């Protein structure tokens, strides 16, 4: 019986894993006897750009060469990357029959959204001095005004300072993240706050309004 025939019962399992895990998970069934065209089936292949008939990765070949499958049933939660820099958390299950390796089921979790969310949350935590998140080397002391407009002005100023990067060197994404952080604090409900934010971030007031529209429409 050929390897492909022996692996056919695992096709529904790969499909099941894909359906359970969701659109951010790529699931691949490999035939190790054909390393140059090992991909028998792939679900959500758009995540990495791979397709049926593609070869095994160098890591997969290495796992097979080193016979890791003799000691382990799977390897899990290692880092994966594509050439364009997309990051994955990957795991590989060894399909064995009487000690012989027949194939692999590889699951690759695209963590792009999680990475962006983590970065955004870290910016928020740092911006608002959540305990344990404040940079130890912060070279300033926060003093907030008593008035609401003064409070907003000081909050904007100190939030930009905490970023640790001059406004002229921030990316548009970093500036938008700061605007979103300030908006969550209700800063832009006070008069003059848009102009203050524009000055602190070295952008125009229309740009601040554009960021706010985009943020509030998400």
CATH topology of the largest domain: Beta-Lactamase
Q: Reading side by side through the largest sheet, how are the strands ordered?
A: 2-1-5-4-3
Uncertain runs are 134-148
The name of the CATH superfamily of the largest domain reads: PAS domain
Mean pLDDT: 82
Order of helices and strands: HHEEHEEEHHHHH
Major sheet size, sense and barrel closure: 5 strands, antiparallel
Shape by Cα distribution:
elongated
Number of helices: 8
Q: What is the percent of helical residues?
A: 40-55%
Radius of gyration: 25 Å
Number of E-type strands: 5
Tally of separate domains: 2
What class, by secondary structure content? alpha+beta
Percent of residues in beta strands?
Answer: 15-25%
Q: Which CATH architecture of the largest domain?
A: 2-Layer Sandwich
CATH class group of the largest domain: Alpha Beta
User: Distance between the terminal alpha carbons, to the nearest Å?
Assistant: 54 Å
